[in-house]
């Protein structure tokens, strides 16, 4: 049976299309920041947090079939009691992905939605750890639908190109 598969493969079945390959090469923190500008006074009153969250993704080609994807998460938490900033945390979680056999929209979708889904849990853990080290209650960020974010970004791009024409 294995011999049959090898013979079929050598007859050109896999030569017609480039073989799809996807592998995660490395996950790393590209940038990290934690600030608590109103400490220690922020600890001397009841803490009723108001969370502001900003999320962005970028990608770039590093070399042939190697791409860097970055998920940037910024959380600014203020105290509802007085509105003062309790803390500001920012993490740029990055990954190197080896991707071959994809092009055009498929590659763009992989870099814009699938890869950020892989990286986001690492960014969440990093933020939670930083917030805990700052002596604040854990900040458990909800999962993010990068598929929807990607679709919205594509829609905005399409609308912007229509208005410029």
Low-pLDDT windows of residues: 1-14
Return the CATH class.
Alpha Beta
Overall mean pLDDT = 88
- Kindly report the name of the CATH homologous superfamily: SecB-like
The geometry reads as: elongated
- The CATH topology: Bacterial Protein-export protein SecB
Structural class: alpha+beta
Q: Which second-level CATH architecture applies?
A: Roll
Rg, alpha carbons: 22 Å
Helix content: 25-40%
Alpha-carbon distance between the two ends? 57 Å
Strand content: 35-45%
Report strand order across the widest sheet: 1-4-3-2
Main beta sheet:
4 strands, antiparallel
The sequence of SSEs as H and E is HEEEEHH
Descriptive overview:
Pfam families: SecB (PF02556). InterPro entries: SecB, SecB-like_sf. This is Protein-export protein SecB. It is found in: Cytoplasm. By secondary structure, the protein is of the alpha+beta class. The chain has one domain (18-136): SecB-like (Bacterial Protein-export protein SecB). The chain has helices at residues 2-13, 104-133, 146-164, and strands at residues 21-35, 49-63, 66-79, 85-100. α2 (104-133) crosses α3. The longest helix has 30 residues, at 104-133. The protein starts with a helix and ends with a helix.
